[in-house]
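Example 3.2
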Amino acid sequence: MRDWAGKRYWIIGASEGLGRALAFKMSGAGAELVLSGRREEPLRKLGAELPGVAQVQVVDVADQTSVDAAVEAIGLIDGLVFLAGVYWPMDAKNWDHDHAIAMADVNFTGQFRVLGRVVPQMIDRGAGHIVLTASLSAFRGLPGAIGYSASKAGILALAESMRCDLRKTGVEVQVTNPGFIRTRLTDKNDFNMPFLMQPDEAADQVFAHMNSRAFKRSFPRLFSMVFRGSQLMPDWLYFRIFG
């Protein structure tokens, strides 16, 4: 079990859904939180409801100037949990340029904007904890997921590379791969979502993972086996089933 008392964690994407639910668990365990997102009002509301110390810092991860200002305002942190993301269902036959670019820019490139400022500080101090959020859709490209699946695959690869590079620096890297979570984003889907989780259920999984020393957690466990198993399929079989 990790000692959370007095540790300062920056949650990006804390306004609602999984980020909001996770903030309650971390705050209840004694962590001091910096709550970030693009909208100040829900962050203020969350901060007032949490049992522990919380600071609000508005940030747009698609804007380097906004990220730089946030990093300067926040100062040193012990950990970072990156949950910010956008999503629109989209297939390659109905390509929406603006939405595709937004998913790549917020979900994936946004992490580089933040990590590029946070990681060097942690390395200099010889300590830090970084938690990235990929998805079960990261294991193989899925139909109807142009932008989202690709951006999440990039996050998983990024986390793996960082885990390799930072092993002996004192900076710990973890990644989670959630399935479907009921949020305003998944409300856009018009298909059945197996094993759909509530935000509190997903937050339980993420917080349990953060309390472990494991690198990766994919959940729900049974559902994740489908996606992990798909990596072992020959291409002809995979595309016949999923295509």
